[in-house]
Predict the 3D structure of the following.
Amino acid sequence: MTRPPLPAALWALLAGNFVIGTGVMLVAGTLNEISASFGVSVAAAGQLMTAGALVVCFGAPLLAALVAGWDRRALLALTMVWYAVCNVAASLMPSYLGLLLTRMLTMLAPAIFTAQAAASVSLLVPADQRGRGVTFVFLGWSMASVLGLPLGAWLGGHYGWRTAFVAIAVAALLSAASIWWTMPGGIRPAALTRAAWVRVFRSPALMGVLMVTALQSTGQFVLFAYFAPLLKLQLGADATAQSFMWAWFGACGLVGNLLVSRYIDRIGAGRASLVTTMLMATSLLLWPLGINFLIFALVLLPWGLGCFAANSAQQARLVGLAPAMAPGSVALNSSGMFIGQAIGAATGGWLLAHDAASWMHWVGFGTMLAAMALSIMVERLPRPQ
């Protein structure tokens, strides 16, 4: 039986996630250039990711409550305008401290957009297409990794990181226009009452899923945050070679997300989450084998397949467990994802600064094992009422 096409608004939300995802990951892709520009160490420059991740972690649930009654077309379009303005401001900063503070303001946009876009899906598609709709919208992050991040890294490597930030700003304005023209007005997910928020926090199943997200993100970002300097250190990769490696990783991520989007309603979000976590753990275990570009690309293959697909599965898992609580639970999922990024980037930076780079993949692998164990436990818990 042929499934009906998804509404045009979901394509605009996918494009918005593409811009958001590219901007979020751009610091990782231009870390060498930012470090050289301000004369700070790579580990110090990496704390831009830690600070930004903390903003999203604490901002996502607070902002979800603040904007609960907003029309989603206006909210998401204005969020992209904010993203554009802040990225231009960041490109003009003359000091590392100025960039750090501006980056924190910039990250208010990801704190709102991804979670509220996912929560809006349940009001744009029938119930039997929710999993497909959520994972489709999150494809934008996979596309950011296969197209946006490599292009941003290439722009940063050849024309400076400031040029790459301005390019994100232009894309954000185009995304805002797309959302405004395609998304219907009057989309307002029901605001969660105080009692509903309490039910979210008291649900072992929902909180367990959120902890899985945090562990997945932590395990990845111990290494992912420092891909660029590690590629340069281990393989002598220049900006062009790094861009190709980012593109390969992103292509794997896109394939993985497409597969999850196609089969998630059939196999279940919990099983999809477990499989994608196992894939990421495999790459972290095999990391030391990447002694040349070809082998390194093969080592990255499972990680790429699981990386973005894992978070798609986690979002669909939350929406499926409690659709009425999705505006809050998916916002908290963003918190889990970004607190993991903050912890992972900070841990990886500490290991890198203390000449313990050989331990980075083991820390990531151990964290992934914990995520897998918890994910299995969550499946045995009762669904929230």
About this structure: The CA atoms of residues 153 and 159 lie 10 Å apart. The chain has a mean pLDDT of 85. Residues 130-159 form the longest helix (30 residues).
